[in-house]
Amino acid sequence: MAGRIAQTFIDDLLDRLDIVDVIDRRVKLKKSGKNYSARCPFHDEKTPSFSVNPDKQFYYCFGCGAGGNAIGFVMDYENIDFPQAVETLASHAGLQVVREQLTQHEQQREEKRSGLYPILEQASRFFQSQLRRHPAAGQAVAYLKGRGLTGVIAQRYGLGFAPPGWDNLISALAGPEDSDEYEEQLQLLLQAGLIIENDQGRRYDRFRNRIVYPIRDQRGRVIAFGGRVLGDDKPKYLNSPETDVFHKGRELYGLFEARKSGRDLNKLVVVEGYMDVIALAQHDIPFATATLGTATSEQHLDRIYRICPEVVFCFDGDEAGRKAAFRALEATLPTLTDGREARFLFLPEGEDPDTIVRGMGTDHFLNLIDHGTPMEEFLFDTLGQDLDLTAPAGRARLAQAALPMMALIPPGIYKQLVFQALAERTGMAVGDLKTLVDTLPVYQPAPPPITGGEPELQPRQREPLPVVETKKPTAFRNLTESAIRMLLHHPESVRSLSDSDPLHGIDDPDVMFLREIIALLQKRPDSNTATLLGYWHGTPQGELLNRLSGQENLLPKDGVGSEFSDLVRHLGQLPERQDQAAQVDKMKDPYYADLSEDEKLKIKLDFQRRLQLKARK
Ligand SMILES: [Zn+2]
User: Fold this and answer.
1) Which domains does the chain show, CATH number per domain?
2) Which helix H or strand E contains 268, and what residues bound it?
3) Which residues surround ligand 1, an ion (CB under 5 A)?
4) pTM above the 0.70 mark?
Protein backbone atom coordinates (compact mmCIF):
# COMPACT_ATOMS: atom_id res chain seq x y z
CA MET A 1 0.00 0.00 0.00
CA ALA A 2 1.30 3.44 -0.87
CA GLY A 3 2.56 5.41 2.12
CA ARG A 4 3.51 8.99 2.68
CA ILE A 5 6.14 10.41 0.36
CA ALA A 6 9.55 10.09 2.02
CA GLN A 7 11.02 13.39 3.20
CA THR A 8 14.41 12.41 1.84
CA PHE A 9 12.81 12.02 -1.55
CA ILE A 10 11.23 15.46 -1.35
CA ASP A 11 14.59 16.99 -0.43
CA ASP A 12 16.24 15.12 -3.27
CA LEU A 13 13.57 16.25 -5.73
CA LEU A 14 13.94 19.89 -4.67
CA ASP A 15 17.68 19.53 -5.10
CA ARG A 16 17.35 18.38 -8.65
CA LEU A 17 14.70 20.82 -9.76
CA ASP A 18 15.35 24.37 -10.77
CA ILE A 19 12.45 26.52 -9.64
CA VAL A 20 13.14 28.96 -12.48
CA ASP A 21 12.60 26.14 -14.97
CA VAL A 22 9.50 24.83 -13.17
CA ILE A 23 7.83 28.25 -13.05
CA ASP A 24 9.02 29.40 -16.46
CA ARG A 25 7.32 26.38 -18.03
CA ARG A 26 4.04 27.72 -16.67
CA VAL A 27 4.52 31.47 -16.35
CA LYS A 28 7.07 33.17 -18.58
CA LEU A 29 9.80 34.72 -16.42
CA LYS A 30 12.06 37.66 -17.12
CA LYS A 31 15.49 38.14 -15.65
CA SER A 32 15.62 41.15 -13.38
CA GLY A 33 18.87 41.62 -11.47
CA LYS A 34 19.83 38.36 -9.83
CA ASN A 35 16.19 37.30 -9.61
CA TYR A 36 13.43 36.66 -12.14
CA SER A 37 10.08 38.36 -12.28
CA ALA A 38 6.67 38.02 -13.89
CA ARG A 39 3.11 39.18 -13.54
CA CYS A 40 1.71 37.16 -10.64
CA PRO A 41 -0.50 34.22 -11.65
CA PHE A 42 -2.22 34.28 -8.27
CA HIS A 43 -3.64 37.75 -8.36
CA ASP A 44 -4.63 40.26 -10.96
CA GLU A 45 -1.95 42.88 -11.59
CA LYS A 46 -0.57 45.16 -14.26
CA THR A 47 3.05 45.43 -13.17
CA PRO A 48 5.07 42.41 -12.06
CA SER A 49 5.46 41.94 -8.31
CA PHE A 50 6.08 38.21 -8.55
CA SER A 51 9.71 37.35 -8.00
CA VAL A 52 11.72 34.13 -8.22
CA ASN A 53 14.99 33.70 -6.37
CA PRO A 54 17.20 31.17 -8.21
CA ASP A 55 19.90 31.01 -5.50
CA LYS A 56 17.54 30.02 -2.73
CA GLN A 57 14.96 28.38 -4.96
CA PHE A 58 11.82 30.16 -3.84
CA TYR A 59 9.24 32.56 -5.23
CA TYR A 60 7.38 35.38 -3.55
CA CYS A 61 4.75 37.87 -4.63
CA PHE A 62 4.98 41.29 -3.02
CA GLY A 63 1.45 41.98 -4.21
CA CYS A 64 -0.51 39.12 -2.66
CA GLY A 65 1.97 37.30 -0.42
CA ALA A 66 1.96 34.07 -2.43
CA GLY A 67 5.20 32.23 -1.94
CA GLY A 68 6.97 28.93 -1.49
CA ASN A 69 9.20 26.45 -3.22
CA ALA A 70 8.81 24.66 -6.56
CA ILE A 71 6.39 22.07 -5.17
CA GLY A 72 4.26 24.73 -3.53
CA PHE A 73 4.14 26.64 -6.78
CA VAL A 74 2.87 23.65 -8.75
CA MET A 75 0.29 22.91 -6.02
CA ASP A 76 -1.12 26.41 -6.17
CA TYR A 77 -0.72 26.95 -9.89
CA GLU A 78 -2.35 23.71 -10.96
CA ASN A 79 -4.65 23.62 -7.97
CA ILE A 80 -3.59 20.12 -6.98
CA ASP A 81 -2.60 18.56 -3.68
CA PHE A 82 0.90 17.92 -2.40
CA PRO A 83 1.31 14.28 -3.52
CA GLN A 84 0.01 15.16 -6.99
CA ALA A 85 2.45 18.04 -7.27
CA VAL A 86 5.33 15.80 -6.22
CA GLU A 87 4.21 13.16 -8.74
CA THR A 88 4.04 15.75 -11.52
CA LEU A 89 7.48 17.17 -10.81
CA ALA A 90 9.05 13.77 -10.20
CA SER A 91 7.78 12.38 -13.48
CA HIS A 92 9.11 15.41 -15.29
CA ALA A 93 12.50 14.88 -13.66
CA GLY A 94 12.33 11.18 -14.53
CA LEU A 95 12.21 10.09 -10.87
CA GLN A 96 10.11 7.43 -9.17
CA VAL A 97 8.44 8.74 -6.00
CA VAL A 98 9.76 7.04 -2.85
CA ARG A 99 7.22 6.44 -0.10
CA GLU A 100 7.41 5.55 3.57
CA GLN A 101 5.62 2.82 5.47
CA LEU A 102 2.16 3.90 6.60
CA THR A 103 1.31 4.57 10.22
CA GLN A 104 -1.65 2.69 11.63
CA HIS A 105 -3.91 5.70 11.37
CA GLU A 106 -2.91 6.30 7.78
CA GLN A 107 -3.43 2.66 7.00
CA GLN A 108 -7.00 2.85 8.29
CA ARG A 109 -7.72 5.90 6.18
CA GLU A 110 -6.23 4.26 3.13
CA GLU A 111 -8.32 1.16 3.78
CA LYS A 112 -11.46 3.26 3.89
CA ARG A 113 -10.56 4.70 0.53
CA SER A 114 -9.66 1.31 -0.81
CA GLY A 115 -13.04 -0.01 0.36
CA LEU A 116 -14.33 1.67 -2.77
CA TYR A 117 -12.30 -0.50 -5.15
CA PRO A 118 -14.06 -3.79 -4.26
CA ILE A 119 -17.54 -2.28 -4.58
CA LEU A 120 -16.63 -0.74 -7.94
CA GLU A 121 -15.27 -4.09 -9.09
CA GLN A 122 -18.47 -5.83 -7.94
CA ALA A 123 -20.55 -3.26 -9.82
CA SER A 124 -18.49 -3.84 -12.93
CA ARG A 125 -19.06 -7.58 -12.74
CA PHE A 126 -22.77 -6.99 -12.17
CA PHE A 127 -23.04 -4.78 -15.27
CA GLN A 128 -21.12 -7.31 -17.37
CA SER A 129 -23.39 -10.14 -16.29
CA GLN A 130 -26.45 -8.03 -17.12
CA LEU A 131 -25.16 -7.49 -20.64
CA ARG A 132 -25.14 -11.27 -21.10
CA ARG A 133 -28.35 -12.21 -19.41
CA HIS A 134 -30.75 -9.36 -18.65
CA PRO A 135 -33.94 -9.65 -20.76
CA ALA A 136 -33.71 -5.98 -21.73
CA ALA A 137 -30.06 -6.21 -22.84
CA GLY A 138 -30.97 -6.98 -26.46
CA GLN A 139 -30.85 -3.35 -27.55
CA ALA A 140 -27.42 -2.90 -25.96
CA VAL A 141 -26.03 -6.03 -27.58
CA ALA A 142 -27.46 -4.95 -30.93
CA TYR A 143 -25.83 -1.55 -30.58
CA LEU A 144 -22.40 -3.02 -29.81
CA LYS A 145 -22.67 -5.60 -32.60
CA GLY A 146 -23.79 -2.85 -34.94
CA ARG A 147 -20.51 -1.11 -34.21
CA GLY A 148 -18.68 -4.25 -35.16
CA LEU A 149 -17.51 -5.25 -31.69
CA THR A 150 -16.74 -8.86 -30.85
CA GLY A 151 -17.17 -10.54 -27.49
CA VAL A 152 -13.41 -10.59 -27.02
CA ILE A 153 -13.10 -6.82 -27.18
CA ALA A 154 -16.26 -6.29 -25.11
CA GLN A 155 -14.67 -8.45 -22.44
CA ARG A 156 -11.24 -6.84 -22.64
CA TYR A 157 -12.82 -3.45 -21.99
CA GLY A 158 -15.28 -4.89 -19.47
CA LEU A 159 -18.35 -3.53 -21.25
CA GLY A 160 -21.59 -3.94 -19.36
CA PHE A 161 -25.24 -3.05 -19.24
CA ALA A 162 -27.13 -1.11 -16.57
CA PRO A 163 -30.72 -2.33 -16.90
CA PRO A 164 -33.70 0.03 -16.86
CA GLY A 165 -35.16 0.56 -13.38
CA TRP A 166 -34.24 2.46 -10.24
CA ASP A 167 -32.61 -0.08 -7.97
CA ASN A 168 -31.08 -2.97 -9.90
CA LEU A 169 -27.59 -2.26 -8.64
CA ILE A 170 -28.79 -1.47 -5.12
CA SER A 171 -30.59 -4.76 -4.72
CA ALA A 172 -27.77 -6.72 -6.33
CA LEU A 173 -24.98 -5.23 -4.20
CA ALA A 174 -26.65 -4.12 -0.96
CA GLY A 175 -28.90 -7.16 -0.56
CA PRO A 176 -32.30 -7.15 1.14
CA GLU A 177 -33.16 -4.02 3.08
CA ASP A 178 -33.29 -5.83 6.44
CA SER A 179 -29.84 -7.39 6.07
CA ASP A 180 -26.98 -6.41 8.36
CA GLU A 181 -24.75 -4.99 5.66
CA TYR A 182 -27.45 -3.06 3.82
CA GLU A 183 -26.73 0.39 5.20
CA GLU A 184 -22.96 -0.12 5.04
CA GLN A 185 -23.09 -1.20 1.39
CA LEU A 186 -25.35 1.73 0.51
CA GLN A 187 -22.80 4.11 2.01
CA LEU A 188 -20.06 2.56 -0.10
CA LEU A 189 -22.23 2.76 -3.23
CA LEU A 190 -22.86 6.43 -2.50
CA GLN A 191 -19.18 7.17 -1.92
CA ALA A 192 -18.30 5.34 -5.11
CA GLY A 193 -20.72 7.54 -7.05
CA LEU A 194 -22.79 4.55 -8.15
CA ILE A 195 -26.03 5.66 -6.57
CA ILE A 196 -27.67 9.02 -6.01
CA GLU A 197 -29.51 10.27 -2.94
CA ASN A 198 -32.21 12.85 -3.62
CA ASP A 199 -33.42 15.62 -1.31
CA GLN A 200 -36.05 13.32 0.22
CA GLY A 201 -33.33 10.83 1.12
CA ARG A 202 -34.41 8.36 -1.55
CA ARG A 203 -31.54 6.46 -3.14
CA TYR A 204 -31.46 5.13 -6.69
CA ASP A 205 -29.04 3.80 -9.31
CA ARG A 206 -27.05 6.42 -11.19
CA PHE A 207 -26.70 4.35 -14.36
CA ARG A 208 -30.02 3.18 -15.81
CA ASN A 209 -30.69 1.69 -19.24
CA ARG A 210 -27.20 2.46 -20.45
CA ILE A 211 -24.21 0.64 -21.85
CA VAL A 212 -21.52 1.07 -19.21
CA TYR A 213 -17.79 1.36 -19.73
CA PRO A 214 -15.63 0.77 -16.68
CA ILE A 215 -12.87 3.36 -16.29
CA ARG A 216 -9.71 1.82 -14.89
CA ASP A 217 -6.74 3.46 -13.24
CA GLN A 218 -3.12 2.82 -14.15
CA ARG A 219 -3.11 -0.33 -12.05
CA GLY A 220 -6.22 -1.68 -13.73
CA ARG A 221 -8.59 -1.08 -10.82
CA VAL A 222 -12.10 0.06 -11.74
CA ILE A 223 -12.45 3.61 -10.42
CA ALA A 224 -15.53 4.89 -12.22
CA PHE A 225 -17.93 4.26 -15.09
CA GLY A 226 -19.04 5.99 -18.23
CA GLY A 227 -22.48 5.25 -19.55
CA ARG A 228 -23.96 5.67 -23.03
CA VAL A 229 -27.68 6.12 -23.26
CA LEU A 230 -29.84 3.59 -25.12
CA GLY A 231 -33.18 5.36 -25.04
CA ASP A 232 -33.88 9.07 -25.40
CA ASP A 233 -32.61 10.01 -21.95
CA LYS A 234 -30.26 12.92 -21.54
CA PRO A 235 -27.31 13.24 -21.42
CA LYS A 236 -26.09 10.94 -24.13
CA TYR A 237 -22.93 10.20 -22.17
CA LEU A 238 -22.80 10.15 -18.39
CA ASN A 239 -19.71 9.76 -16.20
CA SER A 240 -19.35 8.90 -12.53
CA PRO A 241 -18.89 12.01 -10.37
CA GLU A 242 -15.56 12.83 -8.78
CA THR A 243 -14.91 10.52 -5.83
CA ASP A 244 -12.02 9.70 -3.53
CA VAL A 245 -10.65 7.38 -6.20
CA PHE A 246 -11.76 9.12 -9.40
CA HIS A 247 -10.39 12.47 -10.59
CA LYS A 248 -11.55 13.23 -14.12
CA GLY A 249 -8.89 15.75 -14.94
CA ARG A 250 -6.16 13.17 -14.42
CA GLU A 251 -7.52 9.98 -15.90
CA LEU A 252 -7.35 8.77 -19.45
CA TYR A 253 -9.81 6.17 -20.66
CA GLY A 254 -8.17 3.13 -22.21
CA LEU A 255 -4.64 3.85 -21.04
CA PHE A 256 -4.47 0.75 -18.86
CA GLU A 257 -5.83 -1.45 -21.66
CA ALA A 258 -3.33 0.08 -24.10
CA ARG A 259 -0.45 -0.81 -21.83
CA LYS A 260 -1.87 -4.29 -21.30
CA SER A 261 -2.18 -4.89 -25.03
CA GLY A 262 1.34 -6.23 -25.14
CA ARG A 263 2.30 -3.81 -27.89
CA ASP A 264 5.54 -1.94 -27.76
CA LEU A 265 4.00 1.50 -27.42
CA ASN A 266 5.84 4.15 -29.38
CA LYS A 267 2.82 6.38 -29.73
CA LEU A 268 -0.61 6.96 -28.23
CA VAL A 269 -3.61 8.33 -30.08
CA VAL A 270 -5.92 10.65 -28.16
CA VAL A 271 -9.50 10.39 -29.42
CA GLU A 272 -12.72 11.99 -28.23
CA GLY A 273 -14.84 9.15 -26.81
CA TYR A 274 -14.92 5.67 -25.30
CA MET A 275 -16.45 4.16 -28.42
CA ASP A 276 -13.57 5.47 -30.55
CA VAL A 277 -11.04 3.86 -28.21
CA ILE A 278 -12.84 0.53 -28.33
CA ALA A 279 -13.54 0.60 -32.07
CA LEU A 280 -9.86 1.20 -32.79
CA ALA A 281 -8.89 -1.65 -30.48
CA GLN A 282 -11.33 -3.87 -32.37
CA HIS A 283 -9.36 -3.04 -35.51
CA ASP A 284 -6.03 -3.90 -34.01
CA ILE A 285 -5.13 -0.37 -32.97
CA PRO A 286 -5.09 -0.88 -29.20
CA PHE A 287 -3.12 2.27 -28.38
CA ALA A 288 -5.90 4.87 -28.29
CA THR A 289 -7.02 6.76 -25.21
CA ALA A 290 -9.61 9.44 -24.42
CA THR A 291 -10.00 12.18 -21.83
CA LEU A 292 -13.15 11.95 -19.74
CA GLY A 293 -15.20 14.93 -20.75
CA THR A 294 -12.45 17.38 -19.84
CA ALA A 295 -9.98 19.24 -22.01
CA THR A 296 -6.54 17.71 -22.46
CA SER A 297 -4.35 18.91 -19.61
CA GLU A 298 -0.64 19.01 -18.95
CA GLN A 299 -1.24 16.24 -16.42
CA HIS A 300 -2.71 14.03 -19.11
CA LEU A 301 0.32 14.70 -21.28
CA ASP A 302 2.76 14.00 -18.49
CA ARG A 303 1.03 10.67 -18.11
CA ILE A 304 1.18 9.92 -21.82
CA TYR A 305 4.79 10.98 -22.28
CA ARG A 306 5.79 8.81 -19.37
CA ILE A 307 4.70 5.85 -21.47
CA CYS A 308 5.78 6.82 -24.99
CA PRO A 309 7.45 9.66 -26.86
CA GLU A 310 4.71 10.52 -29.36
CA VAL A 311 1.09 11.59 -29.11
CA VAL A 312 -1.34 11.97 -32.01
CA PHE A 313 -4.47 13.99 -31.28
CA CYS A 314 -7.41 12.93 -33.34
CA PHE A 315 -10.25 15.46 -33.50
CA ASP A 316 -13.31 16.24 -35.59
CA GLY A 317 -12.54 18.56 -38.46
CA ASP A 318 -15.36 20.93 -37.47
CA GLU A 319 -14.88 24.18 -35.58
CA ALA A 320 -15.46 22.63 -32.14
CA GLY A 321 -12.89 19.94 -32.93
CA ARG A 322 -10.31 22.51 -34.01
CA LYS A 323 -10.88 24.56 -30.88
CA ALA A 324 -10.41 21.47 -28.71
CA ALA A 325 -7.26 20.67 -30.66
CA PHE A 326 -5.88 24.14 -30.05
CA ARG A 327 -6.47 23.74 -26.31
CA ALA A 328 -4.67 20.42 -26.45
CA LEU A 329 -1.83 22.18 -28.24
CA GLU A 330 -1.60 24.80 -25.48
CA ALA A 331 -1.34 22.04 -22.88
CA THR A 332 1.25 20.19 -24.94
CA LEU A 333 3.72 23.01 -25.59
CA PRO A 334 5.26 23.13 -22.07
CA THR A 335 5.73 19.35 -22.07
CA LEU A 336 7.60 19.15 -25.38
CA THR A 337 11.11 18.42 -24.22
CA ASP A 338 13.57 17.03 -26.75
CA GLY A 339 12.58 13.63 -28.06
CA ARG A 340 8.86 14.15 -27.61
CA GLU A 341 6.52 14.66 -30.49
CA ALA A 342 2.90 15.75 -31.02
CA ARG A 343 0.78 15.49 -34.18
CA PHE A 344 -2.75 16.52 -35.02
CA LEU A 345 -5.16 14.61 -37.18
CA PHE A 346 -8.47 16.14 -38.29
CA LEU A 347 -11.19 13.89 -39.58
CA PRO A 348 -13.60 14.86 -42.35
CA GLU A 349 -16.89 16.22 -41.02
CA GLY A 350 -19.37 13.57 -40.05
CA GLU A 351 -16.65 10.95 -39.62
CA ASP A 352 -15.07 9.65 -36.44
CA PRO A 353 -12.26 7.14 -35.89
CA ASP A 354 -14.88 4.41 -35.60
CA THR A 355 -16.49 5.07 -39.01
CA ILE A 356 -13.14 5.54 -40.73
CA VAL A 357 -11.52 2.41 -39.42
CA ARG A 358 -14.63 0.39 -40.23
CA GLY A 359 -15.06 1.91 -43.67
CA MET A 360 -11.46 2.18 -44.83
CA GLY A 361 -9.61 -0.36 -42.74
CA THR A 362 -6.77 -0.44 -40.25
CA ASP A 363 -3.91 0.39 -42.60
CA HIS A 364 -5.67 3.45 -43.89
CA PHE A 365 -6.15 4.77 -40.38
CA LEU A 366 -2.55 3.99 -39.40
CA ASN A 367 -1.44 5.86 -42.47
CA LEU A 368 -3.53 8.87 -41.48
CA ILE A 369 -1.97 8.84 -38.02
CA ASP A 370 1.54 8.67 -39.42
CA HIS A 371 0.82 11.67 -41.62
CA GLY A 372 -0.81 13.77 -38.93
CA THR A 373 0.09 17.44 -38.99
CA PRO A 374 3.22 18.14 -36.93
CA MET A 375 2.64 20.40 -33.94
CA GLU A 376 4.40 23.48 -35.34
CA GLU A 377 2.56 23.24 -38.65
CA PHE A 378 -0.79 23.12 -36.89
CA LEU A 379 0.26 26.06 -34.74
CA PHE A 380 1.37 28.23 -37.68
CA ASP A 381 -1.57 27.19 -39.87
CA THR A 382 -4.11 28.04 -37.19
CA LEU A 383 -2.56 31.38 -36.29
CA GLY A 384 -2.01 32.30 -39.93
CA GLN A 385 -5.36 31.24 -41.35
CA ASP A 386 -6.83 34.73 -41.60
CA LEU A 387 -3.56 36.48 -42.45
CA ASP A 388 -2.15 37.41 -45.82
CA LEU A 389 1.22 35.74 -45.58
CA THR A 390 2.36 37.08 -48.93
CA ALA A 391 2.52 40.54 -47.32
CA PRO A 392 5.22 41.49 -44.79
CA ALA A 393 2.57 42.79 -42.38
CA GLY A 394 0.80 39.43 -42.36
CA ARG A 395 4.03 37.58 -41.70
CA ALA A 396 4.89 39.96 -38.87
CA ARG A 397 1.51 39.31 -37.29
CA LEU A 398 2.08 35.57 -37.54
CA ALA A 399 5.40 35.93 -35.71
CA GLN A 400 3.75 38.12 -33.08
CA ALA A 401 1.06 35.54 -32.42
CA ALA A 402 3.27 32.46 -32.54
CA LEU A 403 6.28 33.61 -30.52
CA PRO A 404 4.59 33.90 -27.10
CA MET A 405 3.28 30.36 -27.53
CA MET A 406 6.65 29.05 -28.68
CA ALA A 407 8.15 30.52 -25.54
CA LEU A 408 6.23 27.84 -23.62
CA ILE A 409 8.34 25.06 -25.17
CA PRO A 410 11.17 23.96 -22.85
CA PRO A 411 14.64 24.95 -24.06
CA GLY A 412 16.31 22.44 -26.35
CA ILE A 413 16.95 21.39 -29.90
CA TYR A 414 13.26 20.94 -30.64
CA LYS A 415 12.52 24.51 -29.65
CA GLN A 416 15.34 25.64 -31.91
CA LEU A 417 13.79 23.72 -34.82
CA VAL A 418 10.40 25.33 -34.24
CA PHE A 419 12.09 28.74 -34.38
CA GLN A 420 13.69 27.74 -37.67
CA ALA A 421 10.31 26.67 -39.03
CA LEU A 422 8.84 30.05 -38.13
CA ALA A 423 11.86 31.77 -39.66
CA GLU A 424 11.18 29.97 -42.94
CA ARG A 425 7.52 30.96 -42.92
CA THR A 426 8.12 34.59 -42.07
CA GLY A 427 11.41 35.21 -43.84
CA MET A 428 12.84 36.53 -40.60
CA ALA A 429 16.16 35.47 -39.07
CA VAL A 430 16.05 33.09 -36.08
CA GLY A 431 18.11 35.53 -34.04
CA ASP A 432 15.65 38.34 -34.70
CA LEU A 433 12.74 36.13 -33.70
CA LYS A 434 14.48 35.28 -30.44
CA THR A 435 15.06 38.93 -29.65
CA LEU A 436 11.44 39.61 -30.40
CA VAL A 437 10.18 37.02 -27.90
CA ASP A 438 11.31 39.10 -24.94
CA THR A 439 9.41 42.15 -26.10
CA LEU A 440 6.09 40.33 -26.43
CA PRO A 441 3.57 39.77 -23.63
CA VAL A 442 3.54 36.43 -21.83
CA TYR A 443 1.12 33.97 -23.42
CA GLN A 444 -2.03 33.33 -21.38
CA PRO A 445 -4.08 30.33 -22.48
CA ALA A 446 -7.83 30.94 -22.58
CA PRO A 447 -9.52 29.85 -19.34
CA PRO A 448 -11.08 26.39 -19.62
CA PRO A 449 -14.80 26.39 -20.41
CA ILE A 450 -17.05 25.70 -17.43
CA THR A 451 -18.32 22.19 -18.02
CA GLY A 452 -20.07 21.55 -14.74
CA GLY A 453 -17.13 19.75 -13.18
CA GLU A 454 -14.69 21.54 -10.94
CA PRO A 455 -12.33 23.86 -12.80
CA GLU A 456 -8.94 22.37 -13.62
CA LEU A 457 -5.60 24.06 -13.89
CA GLN A 458 -6.84 27.37 -12.56
CA PRO A 459 -4.25 28.91 -10.26
CA ARG A 460 -5.63 29.50 -6.77
CA GLN A 461 -6.49 33.19 -6.64
CA ARG A 462 -5.47 35.37 -3.73
CA GLU A 463 -6.43 38.79 -2.43
CA PRO A 464 -3.83 41.54 -2.79
CA LEU A 465 -2.03 42.19 0.51
CA PRO A 466 -3.41 45.05 2.64
CA VAL A 467 -1.29 48.16 2.30
CA VAL A 468 -0.85 48.42 6.08
CA GLU A 469 0.07 45.37 8.12
CA THR A 470 -2.98 44.76 10.30
CA LYS A 471 -1.30 42.83 13.10
CA LYS A 472 0.13 45.01 15.83
CA PRO A 473 3.82 44.30 16.23
CA THR A 474 4.84 43.26 19.72
CA ALA A 475 8.36 43.06 21.10
CA PHE A 476 8.17 39.30 20.71
CA ARG A 477 6.95 39.49 17.15
CA ASN A 478 9.65 41.91 16.01
CA LEU A 479 12.45 39.85 17.47
CA THR A 480 11.06 36.48 16.44
CA GLU A 481 10.42 37.63 12.91
CA SER A 482 13.99 38.85 12.64
CA ALA A 483 15.24 35.52 13.96
CA ILE A 484 13.04 33.51 11.61
CA ARG A 485 14.04 35.69 8.68
CA MET A 486 17.72 34.97 9.41
CA LEU A 487 17.10 31.23 9.74
CA LEU A 488 15.03 31.12 6.59
CA HIS A 489 17.69 32.77 4.45
CA HIS A 490 20.67 31.29 6.31
CA PRO A 491 19.52 27.99 7.83
CA GLU A 492 23.11 27.20 8.78
CA SER A 493 22.88 29.95 11.43
CA VAL A 494 21.20 27.39 13.66
CA ARG A 495 24.68 25.98 14.35
CA SER A 496 25.61 29.14 16.24
CA LEU A 497 23.22 28.15 19.04
CA SER A 498 24.52 26.37 22.10
CA ASP A 499 22.86 23.16 23.22
CA SER A 500 20.65 24.76 25.87
CA ASP A 501 17.32 26.13 24.75
CA PRO A 502 16.97 29.72 25.97
CA LEU A 503 13.45 29.90 24.55
CA HIS A 504 12.17 27.01 26.64
CA GLY A 505 8.92 27.78 28.44
CA ILE A 506 7.98 30.94 26.52
CA ASP A 507 4.42 30.41 25.42
CA ASP A 508 4.25 33.16 22.81
CA PRO A 509 2.98 31.57 19.54
CA ASP A 510 5.62 33.29 17.38
CA VAL A 511 8.40 32.08 19.65
CA MET A 512 6.95 28.59 19.66
CA PHE A 513 7.07 28.59 15.86
CA LEU A 514 10.69 29.77 15.94
CA ARG A 515 11.49 26.86 18.26
CA GLU A 516 9.82 24.47 15.84
CA ILE A 517 12.04 25.70 13.03
CA ILE A 518 15.14 25.43 15.20
CA ALA A 519 14.22 21.88 16.22
CA LEU A 520 13.65 20.93 12.60
CA LEU A 521 16.97 22.38 11.48
CA GLN A 522 18.80 20.63 14.29
CA LYS A 523 17.22 17.36 13.23
CA ARG A 524 17.70 17.95 9.50
CA PRO A 525 20.74 20.20 9.16
CA ASP A 526 20.73 19.97 5.36
CA SER A 527 17.45 21.85 5.03
CA ASN A 528 17.57 25.00 2.95
CA THR A 529 15.23 27.91 2.25
CA ALA A 530 13.19 25.91 -0.23
CA THR A 531 12.71 22.90 2.05
CA LEU A 532 11.75 25.15 4.97
CA LEU A 533 9.11 26.87 2.85
CA GLY A 534 7.84 23.45 1.83
CA TYR A 535 7.25 22.20 5.38
CA TRP A 536 4.68 24.88 6.17
CA HIS A 537 3.29 25.59 2.68
CA GLY A 538 -0.40 26.44 2.82
CA THR A 539 -0.49 27.04 6.61
CA PRO A 540 -0.62 30.37 8.51
CA GLN A 541 3.01 29.80 9.51
CA GLY A 542 3.77 29.26 5.82
CA GLU A 543 2.28 32.67 5.04
CA LEU A 544 4.66 34.23 7.56
CA LEU A 545 7.60 32.37 6.00
CA ASN A 546 6.55 33.53 2.53
CA ARG A 547 6.51 37.13 3.65
CA LEU A 548 9.89 36.83 5.35
CA SER A 549 11.34 35.14 2.27
CA GLY A 550 10.68 38.35 0.39
CA GLN A 551 12.63 40.43 2.95
CA GLU A 552 16.16 39.45 2.11
CA ASN A 553 17.11 43.11 2.10
CA LEU A 554 16.41 43.39 5.85
CA LEU A 555 19.14 40.88 6.70
CA PRO A 556 22.43 42.00 8.21
CA LYS A 557 25.13 42.22 5.55
CA ASP A 558 27.39 39.71 7.25
CA GLY A 559 27.81 37.82 10.51
CA VAL A 560 24.25 36.50 10.35
CA GLY A 561 25.19 33.50 12.51
CA SER A 562 26.36 35.47 15.54
CA GLU A 563 23.56 38.04 15.12
CA PHE A 564 21.15 35.15 15.18
CA SER A 565 22.44 33.64 18.41
CA ASP A 566 22.49 37.09 20.05
CA LEU A 567 18.93 37.61 18.98
CA VAL A 568 17.78 34.28 20.38
CA ARG A 569 19.53 34.97 23.68
CA HIS A 570 17.90 38.36 23.82
CA LEU A 571 14.52 36.80 23.11
CA GLY A 572 15.08 34.30 25.90
CA GLN A 573 15.62 37.17 28.33
CA LEU A 574 12.64 39.12 27.16
CA PRO A 575 10.08 37.68 29.63
CA GLU A 576 12.40 38.61 32.54
CA ARG A 577 12.99 42.05 31.16
CA GLN A 578 9.31 42.60 30.70
CA ASP A 579 8.78 41.37 34.27
CA GLN A 580 11.41 43.74 35.48
CA ALA A 581 9.96 46.64 33.56
CA ALA A 582 6.61 45.82 35.09
CA GLN A 583 8.28 45.74 38.50
CA VAL A 584 9.82 49.14 37.94
CA ASP A 585 6.42 50.42 36.92
CA LYS A 586 5.00 48.90 40.05
CA MET A 587 7.53 50.72 42.17
CA LYS A 588 6.15 53.94 40.88
CA ASP A 589 2.82 52.74 42.16
CA PRO A 590 1.68 54.53 45.34
CA TYR A 591 1.54 51.17 47.11
CA TYR A 592 5.26 50.63 46.64
CA ALA A 593 6.00 54.17 47.65
CA ASP A 594 5.37 52.96 51.17
CA LEU A 595 8.25 50.47 50.97
CA SER A 596 11.51 51.36 52.56
CA GLU A 597 14.54 52.10 50.34
CA ASP A 598 16.06 48.82 51.57
CA GLU A 599 13.08 46.83 50.51
CA LYS A 600 13.07 48.46 47.06
CA LEU A 601 16.76 47.72 46.62
CA LYS A 602 16.21 44.10 47.61
CA ILE A 603 13.56 43.61 44.93
CA LYS A 604 15.76 45.25 42.33
CA LEU A 605 18.82 43.14 43.20
CA ASP A 606 16.75 40.01 43.23
CA PHE A 607 15.65 40.65 39.65
CA GLN A 608 19.12 41.45 38.45
CA ARG A 609 20.45 38.26 39.97
CA ARG A 610 17.74 36.18 38.30
CA LEU A 611 18.48 37.83 35.00
CA GLN A 612 22.18 37.04 35.24
CA LEU A 613 21.47 33.43 36.19
CA LYS A 614 19.24 33.07 33.17
CA ALA A 615 21.84 34.64 30.85
CA ARG A 616 24.47 32.21 32.04
CA LYS A 617 22.32 29.17 31.31
ZN1 LIG B 1 0.47 37.87 -6.37
Assistant:
1) 7-92 (3.90.580.10), 115-239 (3.90.980.10), 252-437 (3.40.1360.10), 475-616 (1.10.860.10)
2) strand 267-271
3) 40, 42-43, 61, 63-64, 66
4) no
